[in-house]
Design brief:
- 43% of the residues lie in helices and 18% in strands.
- The chain has 278 residues and is an alpha/beta fold.
- The protein folds into 2 domains: 111 residues, Quinolinate phosphoribosyl transferase, N-terminal domain (Aldehyde Oxidoreductase, domain 3, Alpha-Beta Complex); 150 residues, TIM Barrel (Alpha-Beta Barrel), CATH 3.20.20.70.
- The longest helix has 31 residues.
- The two termini are 31 Å apart.
């Protein structure tokens, strides 16, 4: 984890929520009053964000004692205590909502990811996330995917060339677009080239390019994927995406592809309910 990015995130969140002070706690709680609070899960889950919670509490108040009773990636059950915080009550209350928001979101993603991973555990295939993430929270959401057992796709537009349908349609076809990408990677910035194809015909047009790092079969049906796997014949790693659900993911995993990407890991996941209690 990028500590500088994490620090900036925490600082921005504190500024958003507190600004010139938590006035409710200031008027109700004596400044030097100490206490202990427990962070509890209200449902079964894969917990994520435990290490982040400790960093948030101690960034705001280095004197808070944060006792971690669970670690990231562990199974937790309803009413289990995840961590305890002891110290200045104003500090605990000031960070309560930020910690809960992060942990609930991250635990929801980790739980969803682990569920999908378990469904395809009999197959030699990796589960990937996508860029369908909450703005400015991508690093947290992708962190949660990894905690759940998944793998991160590219972090942004900057760490891979990923040729998609709109690039092809705005350019001069898939062959021309791939040639442009190869030229760019060779002469401007050495960067992996991933190509998304929509049809077997498009696949046949790019199969001769050795420079391609990975091919994505987008919205292919199962029989089309099996045909594509034979055509590619291990020349490139294959990723499938589009219309993949918990109900059909085993069918996709059984086709022999190396990767399955699911936007649903981050874009529509249900948060895990948690609370902080005195």
């Amino acid at each position: 984890m990028d500590n500088k990015k994490l620090q900036e995130f925490i600082e921005n969140c504190i500024q958003e929520d507190i600004k010139d002070g938590d006035h409710t706690s200031i008027c109700c709680i004596p400044n030097n009053k100490k206490g202990t609070a427990s962070l509890i899960s209200k449902e079964n889950a894969i917990v994520a964000g435990v290490e982040l919670a400790k960093k948030i509490f101690n960034y705001y108040d280095k004197d808070l004692n944060v006792e971690l009773l669970k670690t990231d990636g562990q199974n937790i059950t309803k009413e289990e205590i995840i961590l305890k915080i002891t110290g200045n009550i104003r500090s605990i209350l000031a960070m309560e909502r930020l910690v809960l928001n992060c942990m609930q979101r991250m635990s929801g993603i980790a739980t969803k990811t682990r569920k999908i991973i378990n469904l395809i555990s009999d197959f030699n295939v990796k589960l990937l996330d996508t860029r369908k993430t909450t703005p400015n929270l991508r690093f947290l959401e992708k962190w949660a995917v990894k905690i759940g057992g998944g793998e991160n796709h590219r972090m942004g537009l900057y760490d891979a060339i990923l040729i998609k349908d709109n690039h092809i349609d705005y350019s001069k076809g898939i062959t021309f677009t791939v040639k442009q990408a190869i030229n760019y990677s060779n002469n401007v910035k050495k960067i992996p080239i991933i190509v998304e194809v929509r049809t077997i015909e498009e696949l046949n047009q790019i199969i001769s390019f050795d420079e391609i790092y990975r091919v994505i079969l987008d919205n292919f049906k199962i029989d089309q994927i099996k045909k594509a796997v034979k055509i590619i014949s291990k020349k490139f790693p294959i990723e499938v995406s589009g219309n993949i659900t918990e109900n059909n993911i085993k069918d996709f995993a059984a086709t022999g592809v190396e990767f399955i990407s699911m936007g649903a890991l981050t874009h529509s996941v249900q948060n895990i309910d948690m609370s902080l209690k005195a």
